[in-house]
Amino acid sequence: MIGRLNHVAIAVPDLDAAAKTYRQTLGAIVSTPCDIPEHGVTVVFVELSNTKIELVHPLGDASPLKGYLEKNPAGGIHHICYEVADIREARDKLKASGARVLGDGEPKIGAHGKPVLFLHPKDFQGALVELEEA
Q: Is 0.85 surpassed by the pTM of this model?
């Protein structure tokens, strides 16, 4: 069902500093910041030859990422994103197998302009999983 790794997301307390580290220290290509109000985050993408790293920061006080950074003030790996061919079909198969889809279960548009869903970390060995329709 899952396809290739799309990205690994790292929650960061200071988006500008994190982007600078990847750009200047590691020599990476880093996108400009993009606000995603529907998800309550601002992101930048670090482009790699085989995948991306998403640096993610809370957008506003209601951001679901705010609680994560309160528990992990230095930041850390937040989620891993896999591509799927048909997100609704993947959702239905996952739910039928007992996996929990977060939110209302309906895909929302993610940072790449494609439908995404998140799966409960307790169902995936403690890892928050994002699915993105490829």
A: yes
